[in-house]
Specification:
mainly alpha
């Protein structure tokens, strides 16, 4: 039944539009054009963001930051092994997923590190990507408190993920 959901939805929308005597094709073209305009407005921010993440990983800066932040992470209860995930997750979901997969391959999926990484991936957001997409689409130039609030929420998610993995 679930396989029929999309076709039934498309048929339902088409029947509704025909009943209201609307040109479905023109509406689809207009929606596609709006989507392309949105893509053009957010593409530069995404290209810069993804380039910066790649440069951080390739330069070894992530490894250096991991070593520097390890004592602080232990104080707040975040395993030092998950710090690359903590550092990359706000910037790139795919980079964070790759780091999470590496952690699970090295430590095992049922290990404390593997479970912590999985919970972190599920309880945090790619903050800068999300902000660039949503604020860019809305035309917001100054994020004001949006970025600090989102990063605090991410930190809370990372600490809560570590605590949850240890408790359960």
């Amino acid at each position: 039944m679930l396989d029929l959901l999309i076709p039934l939805l498309m048929i339902g929308v088409s029947v509704f539009a025909l009943a209201k005597r609307q040109d479905v094709y023109s509406a689809l073209l207009e929606g596609g054009l709006d989507g392309l305009k949105l893509l053009l407005s957010i593409a530069p921010a995404l290209v810069i963001l993804l380039t910066a993440v790649y440069m951080l990983r390739a330069s070894g800066a992530i490894d250096l930051l991991t070593q520097l932040l390890a004592p602080v992470s232990r104080l707040v209860g975040i395993p030092a092994e998950t710090l690359p995930l903590v550092l990359l997750r706000p910037f790139s979901g795919s980079a964070a997923l790759a780091v999470g997969a590496d952690l699970m391959a090295v430590y095992g999926v049922d290990s404390l590190i593997g479970r912590t990484a999985a919970i972190m991936l599920g309880s945090t957001e790619t903050t800068f990507y999300t902000i660039s997409v949503y604020f860019g689409a809305a035309g917001v130039k100054k994020t004001r408190y949006g970025i600090p609030a989102a990063l605090i929420a991410d930190l809370t998610g990372f600490v809560a993920a570590s605590l949850t993995a240890r408790l359960f």
